[in-house]
Write a structure and sequence with these properties.
It is built from 7 helices and 16 strands. With 367 residues, the protein is of the alpha+beta class. It has one domain: L-amino peptidase D-ALA esterase/amidase.
Length: 367
């Protein structure tokens, strides 16, 4: 098994290695980092019996003082993504993005601010409203132990790089579960004409009975070995699907308007639906889409403008967006399946165990 479409840099299998038929043409590494300028870094914390957490850092641009057009969508709001009020106001996002666990949002936010002050003090002299989002890893991780420190956030931000990236139990996805299998971090990309679109997910959602892969309902067939099925976290189950969440970051170098980015973010819902979920009431499903097109168009006043003070902005016409909508759906579906495929069993907090997706059984079930 070779090549970035089939395996992660460490050799863990990706969805395509299981024979899962997936539509569309991936980018060179089938990752969000196929979008020019996008880099990703991780800090993964697996320590002792109870620590299973981390931080994922995403840099949309090399220059955090050059905002991207941005749009947001919430499928279900039991989650957090900071900075959204300003994105709603301006249609812009600037600086790095971090994903972590629910109770580490504050420290990750502080870490982004510190990193910006240290590395881009001119930008930080104004004000900073970083985007930090989360999913809950308290089944496998001692989430109240404050294990994520500011230094871990800085390490992830400093280590961000282009090229193929790890998936599964890495970064913010380290302690996550998906369809009551081991979940976490996944990514995929699609080539769309002269542009690239990539998606990165932190997948921590879904009940086992819902799992659907390439249109094949596998949840009931794979219902054995499910420790989570007997675990009731407070009132978060109510006899229905296990609560959980998914965060998705969509990036493309296609030049888009903020409302067009929001339209891309809405299509993430169709990608996750292909994997079977109906969206639990206690799930936090938050999606942010960015366009790195139009570099410099939204940056500070020190950049060159026209004589009348105006700036030029390029964007695709609305009727040209359907291939990008399709790319979001395809890449989201594959990113989730990659998060599942690249994992192994994990035991963590209080001896809780989560099994990995049984890859051989999935391979045998594919058409």
């Amino acid at each position: 098994m070779t090549g970035p479409h089939l395996a992660t840099p460490s050799g863990r299998p990706r969805a395509r290695a299981l024979g899962i038929p997936l539509a569309g043409t991936p980018g060179a590494d089938n990752a969000i980092t196929d979008v020019p300028g996008v880099t990703v870094g991780y800090t993964t914390l697996i320590e002792g019996p109870d620590v299973r957490t981390g931080v994922t850092a995403i840099h949309p641009r090399a220059d955090p003082g050059d905002p991207c057009a941005a749009g947001f969508h919430s499928l279900n709001g039991n989650g957090e993504m900071t900075g959204l009020a300003w994105i709603a106001e301006t249609g812009l996002q600037s600086g790095p993005i971090c994903l972590t666990n629910t109770h580490a949002v504050g420290i990750a936010h502080a870490g982004v601010v510190r990193w910006m002050v240290e590395h881009h003090p001119r930008v930080a002299e104004a004000w900073l409203l970083p985007v930090v989002s989360e999913t809950w890893d308290g089944y496998l991780n001692d989430i109240n132990g404050a294990h994520v420190k500011e230094a871990h956030v800085l390490h992830a931000l400093d280590g961000a790089a282009p090229g193929p990236i790890e998936e599964g139990s890495v970064g913010g996805g380290t302690g996550m579960c998906c369809y009551e299998f081991k979940g976490g971090t996944g990514t995929a990309s699609r080539a769309v004409g002269d542009h690239t679109l990539g998606v990165l997910v932190q997948a921590n959602f879904g009940s086992r009975s819902e799992l659907t892969i390439a249109g094949v309902r596998l949840g009931d067939e794979l219902k054995d070995d499910n420790p989570l099925g007997d675990w009731v976290p407070g009132a978060c189950r109510e006899g229905g699907p296990v609560a959980g969440s998914i965060v998705a970051i969509v990036a493309t170098d296609a030049p888009l308007l903020p409302h067009q980015c929001a339209a891309l973010a809405r299509r993430v819902t169709l990608g996750i639906a292909r994997t079977g979920t109906t969206g639990s009431h206690f799930s936090g499903d938050l999606f942010l889409a960015l366009s790195t097109g139009n570099p410099g168009a939204f940056a500070g006043q020190d950049l060159v403008t026209r004589a009348d003070g105006q700036r030029e902005l390029r964007f695709l016409p609305w009727h040209a967006l359907d291939p990008y909508f399709e790319a979001v759906v395809q890449a989201t579906e594959e990113a989730i399946l990659n998060a599942l495929a690249a994992n192994e069993d994990m035991t963590g907090y209080r001896g809780h165990r989560v099994p990995a997706l049984p890859r051989d059984r999935v391979r045998a079930a594919m058409p």
